[in-house]
Q: What sequence folds into this?
């Protein structure tokens, strides 16, 4: 409906009460904190120093508990955690215990990994039935284990005259695993050659003694023992975490609360032993806010209407009724209005509901969409659910008008007869309905565009932007031109009456175009400002020619853009008739399944497309005429129980 | 056009669609280690298959380059195999080009008495593909032994007439001109014999561009580094005239210095398409500009041609540029060069 009135609030008190004041601001849930106006006086400073809770908070978050703990949902004022010293001692004891457990598990895992690495290497040695230890103890030759890229292997024949041998015992497709050996005095040359062949050396662990097969067996047993030991340790650790997880969550919430409160101190200004905090409180909440802060001994609260603040951008809280509330999501998506501006939620709620219903008219599907929407809203609080609930009812209403229930076009005929109607109020599928539906869609568009232009004129006058209000394409000139063209063309087509007489054309079409062309100098003239031509006369003529041309083109395209409303009525009816056709051709038993799947498909796909198309109409054809969306959201200070603290 | 080859054109375009984009090059340039660049290529680009089973964490730069060369050649073979094109003479162009490259490399290392280094640079994947024994070529200790290895190939008749000096040094530039001339005329003749119509014209145009660009770059180098006159440059250039007329080529070669060379080049069909030419420019920039132009032409051919031969020929050129770009980045990473420096060296059109 409107934008919540705000009060600019200053809280001043003794510095020792700053933290308590911030706590009360958080408790109120209606205080949007902001930077106080700059104060150049000597001695005025910001609170300094590293947050004393940061280190402890980081440690609590860093405790490796797997995914067993959810750090939220605990009361930060729980008396068990108010004693900070005891909290620190309790946490450190738990931390030590968990670190010790982790260390032991890591040691075991490292050992296991070492054995597994050795096993992996042994798996490539299995073709070699020699004692590993024996190979390394040769007196006259040296050898290197490793892998040679397969491409390089073809080059080995080049070195056939050298005193070196490469023995491969495995091939994994990319590498040949093996070892090369050479007399001790030729090893340097062999190393150089194999390096040029991209041989990658592998150091076998020194605990390998016997043949690869025997060593594999021994290591596998060791790995299995280690696995058992690790599992036992992990079980003990998990049991301990289970026993302290409530406390860990409580500690986190308490320390995060204190951390966030401390972080809010940066918004305060300190002068000698006093502080000042500033922010915004909705006018309606002012009494409640004052009652909460009254409990603070030395703190004075001063408030004044937000419009009296000059340098600050006033935060925006939209005030909507129950019906409109979910549609604020679309407004926020585009951007909030500025303070004192126009809240378009009502317009969006009405036009969106209406257009969606017209484009997606089906009694059965509408009710299903509505029920699903309300369930989503109830379960998750998601605004989209609320929107679906509302537009679903609109769809159901228009479905009633079209006589369509889950694609059955004749199902409601007895109802119409019963209430005395000869046929459906709107016969979508009849050929003679095509033009009226499309013309109706354009008429809806015309009305929406005219309403948007009127809102823009009103808002521009309110903000004293006379150029836009009078001479803009969405101002009085634009409105006159748009209406004159529409009236002239409409009567010519429908009533065969030609309104385009010379005075009509000159007064209602040419004059507004000329005024729009010279809107900037004329706007300055009526505002009493001096107009300064920038870029030269040629530039002015060319730029304004194209701009006015674009305005004219825009009127036509924007109006025709609404034809899609009619188009989707036919599209919906067409898709449902395809579903019905398919169900008729399906086997007897499969027919209901085809109808159900077809309905679900149409609801899912067409519902989504219609939703997006209507939103597009709202944003492009309506919002662009009068709305900037450059407001800043009202966000009352609160504690965030998010573990990401940087 | 043979309609059955449409599939190759489409496939070539599809593979081209997977090429490295500017963002990939930028990502690669930000890598601090060769292994990180290899990991990026493996995980995030169409080179992933080439790294199958390869442990990139310990990969050697040379190994990485050989994998890239192999991937490049494999791509060419796969595209040829797609419609059994390998049986048609023209589609051996990369095989011949690679063989010539290896022969020239071997001659260069032989002249420098570094035969043992040649085996290290020899692309191992090519050993089984070449029409002569590359391992024996690497073992050759003299030009005569080298000729023995290529005795049953067309290269023998080209090289056998070339005399070494009294120290056994092979005149490299003479070999280079002779082998490249053979390659270019083989390309031209095969294209003319094998293809007809607009496909043939497009293909010959691409070949001519390649000839011209080789000559332009070589002449620029000879002018800049040796100050040679027109006659001498002509002697060491490919004896072909592509899209540059005989007269224009003579004007270019006879330029007094590199500045005049660039001024003359600007009046040619190539110079008119290059905005980045200026007098006194560095050799590396000059060459990069020409390679960019060649890439643009290859891209255009790839986009608009419906000939399999043109598509494949243009695509392989673009792939080669891509591999060279990656190798450039890897070398820059190894020598810890700055990102802007790397980006300047890349040929991205």
A:
């Amino acid at each position: 409906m409107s934008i919540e009135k705000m009060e600019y609030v200053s809280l001043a008190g003794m510095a020792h009460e700053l933290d308590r004041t911030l706590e009360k601001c958080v408790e109120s849930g209606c205080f949007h904190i902001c930077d106080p106006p700059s104060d150049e006086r000597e001695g005025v400073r910001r609170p300094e120093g590293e947050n004393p809770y940061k280190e402890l908070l980081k440690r609590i978050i860093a405790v490796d508990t797997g995914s067993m703990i959810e750090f939220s949902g605990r009361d930060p004022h729980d008396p068990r955690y108010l004693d900070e010293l005891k909290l620190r001692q309790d946490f450190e004891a738990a931390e030590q215990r968990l670190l010790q457990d982790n260390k032991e598990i890591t040691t075991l895992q490292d050992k296991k990994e070492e054995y597994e690495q050795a096993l992996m290497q042994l798996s490539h040695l299995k073709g070699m039935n020699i004692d590993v230890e024996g190979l390394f103890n040769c007196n006259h030759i040296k050898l290197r284990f490793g892998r040679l890229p397969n491409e390089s292997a073809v080059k080995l024949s080049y070195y056939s005259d050298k005193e070196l041998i490469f023995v491969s015992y495995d091939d994994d497709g990319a590498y040949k695993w093996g070892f090369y050996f050479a007399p001790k005095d030729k090893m340097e040359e062999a190393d150089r050659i194999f390096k040029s062949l991209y041989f990658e050396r592998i150091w076998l662990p020194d605990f390998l003694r016997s043949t690869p097969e025997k060593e594999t067996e021994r290591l596998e047993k060791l790995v299995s023992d280690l696995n058992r030991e690790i599992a036992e340790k992990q079980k003990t650790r998990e049991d301990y975490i289970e026993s302290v997880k409530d406390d860990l969550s409580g500690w986190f919430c308490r320390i995060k609360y204190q951390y966030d409160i401390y972080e809010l101190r940066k918004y305060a200004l300190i002068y000698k032993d006093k502080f000042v905090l500033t922010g915004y409180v909705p006018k309606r909440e002012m009494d409640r806010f004052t009652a909460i802060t009254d409990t603070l001994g030395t703190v004075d609260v001063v408030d004044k209407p937000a419009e009296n603040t000059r340098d600050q951008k006033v935060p925006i809280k939209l005030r909507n009724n129950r019906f409109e509330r979910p549609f604020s999501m679309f407004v926020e998506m585009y951007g909030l209005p500025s303070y004192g501006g126009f809240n378009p939620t009502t317009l969006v709620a009405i036009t969106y509901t209406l257009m969606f219903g017209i484009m997606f008219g089906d009694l059965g599907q509408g009710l299903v969409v509505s029920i699903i929407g309300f369930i989503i809203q109830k379960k998750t609080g998601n605004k989209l659910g609320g929107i679906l609930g509302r537009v679903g009812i609109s769809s159901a209403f228009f479905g009633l008008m079209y006589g369509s229930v889950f694609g059955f076009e004749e199902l409601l005929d007895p109802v119409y007869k019963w209430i005395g109607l000869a046929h459906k109020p709107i016969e979508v599928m009849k050929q003679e309905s095509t033009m009226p539906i499309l013309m109706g869609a354009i008429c809806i568009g015309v009305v929406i565009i005219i309403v948007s232009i009127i809102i823009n004129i009103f808002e521009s006058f309110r903000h004293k932007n006379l150029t836009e209000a009078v001479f803009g394409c969405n101002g009085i000139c634009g409105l006159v031109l748009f209406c004159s063209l529409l009236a002239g063309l409409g009567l010519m087509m429908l009533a065969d009456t030609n309104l385009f007489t010379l005075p009509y054309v000159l007064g209602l079409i040419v004059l507004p175009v000329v005024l729009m062309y010279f809107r900037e100098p004329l706007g300055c003239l009526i505002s009493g400002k001096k107009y300064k031509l920038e870029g030269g006369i040629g530039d002015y003529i060319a730029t304004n020619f194209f701009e006015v041309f674009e305005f004219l083109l825009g009127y036509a395209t924007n109006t025709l853009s609404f034809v899609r409303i009619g188009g989707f009525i036919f599209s919906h009816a067409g898709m449902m008739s395809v579903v019905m056709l398919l169900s008729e051709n399906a086997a007897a038993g499969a027919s209901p399944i085809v109808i159900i799947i077809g309905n679900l498909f149409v609801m899912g796909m067409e519902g989504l497309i219609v939703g997006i198309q209507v939103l597009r109409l709202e944003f492009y054809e309506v919002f662009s005429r009068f709305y900037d969306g450059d407001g800043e959201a009202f966000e009352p200070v609160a504690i965030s129980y998010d573990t990401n603290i940087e | 056009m043979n309609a059955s080859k449409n599939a190759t054109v489409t496939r070539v375009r599809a593979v081209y669609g997977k090429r490295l984009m500017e963002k990939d090059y930028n990502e690669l340039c930000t890598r601090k280690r060769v292994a990180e660049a290899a990991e990026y290529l493996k995980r995030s680009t169409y080179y992933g298959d080439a790294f199958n089973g390869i442990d990139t964490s310990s990969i050697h730069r040379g190994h990485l380059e050989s994998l890239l060369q192999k991937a490049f050649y494999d791509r060419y073979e796969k595209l040829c195999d797609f419609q059994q094109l390998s049986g048609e003479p023209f589609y051996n162009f990369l095989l011949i080009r690679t063989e010539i490259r290896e022969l020239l490399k071997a001659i260069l290392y032989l002249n420098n008495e570094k035969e043992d280094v040649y085996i290290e640079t020899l692309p191992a994947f090519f050993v089984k593909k070449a029409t002569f024994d590359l391992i024996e070529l690497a073992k050759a200790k003299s030009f005569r032994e080298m000729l023995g290895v290529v005795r049953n190939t067309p290269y023998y008749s080209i090289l056998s007439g070339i005399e070494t000096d009294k120290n056994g040094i092979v005149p490299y530039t003479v070999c280079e001109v002779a082998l490249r001339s053979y390659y270019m005329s083989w390309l031209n003749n095969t294209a003319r014999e094998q293809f007809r119509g607009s496909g043939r014209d497009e293909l010959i145009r691409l070949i001519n561009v390649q000839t011209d660009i080789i000559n332009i770059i070589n002449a620029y180098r000879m002018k800049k580094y040796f100050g040679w006159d027109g006659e001498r440059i002509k002697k060491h250039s490919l004896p072909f005239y592509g899209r540059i007329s005989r007269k224009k080529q003579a004007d270019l070669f006879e330029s007094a210095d590199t500045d005049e060379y660039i001024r003359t080049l600007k009046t040619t069909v190539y110079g008119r398409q290059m905005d980045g030419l200026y007098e006194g420019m560095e050799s590396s920039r000059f060459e990069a500009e020409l390679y960019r132009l060649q890439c643009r032409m290859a891209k255009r051919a790839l986009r608009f041609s419906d000939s399999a031969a043109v598509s494949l020929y243009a695509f392989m050129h673009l792939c080669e540029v891509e591999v060279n770009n990656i190798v450039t980045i890897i070398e820059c990473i190894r020598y810890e060069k700055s990102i802007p420096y790397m980006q300047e060296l890349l040929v991205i059109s």
